[in-house]
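Record passed on here:
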Amino acid sequence: MIIRILGEGQYEIAERHLDRLNELDSSVQSAADADDETAFAAALSALLDSVRSLGEPVPDRRITPSDLVLPDEHTSLARVRKLLSDEGLIPG
């Protein structure tokens, strides 16, 4: 799976890491549902850090579509609410 972090780049994530990313995504969703800006910022940061650490950066010269696009760390809770589906940022 190719995940793009807006303003940063793409990461190739092995399928074995998707359960962990979904757990972190659930924390983002819970914080957004609770309207807790502090918890939201921490949860989004943890999700993005995990994508960076678990994934392999896709070289800029490789042109490939993203399977999923995540907001950057500076995206507001209000903006992310518009991106959230019933399944969070990461479907599954």
Remarks:
- Residues 2-83 form one domain.
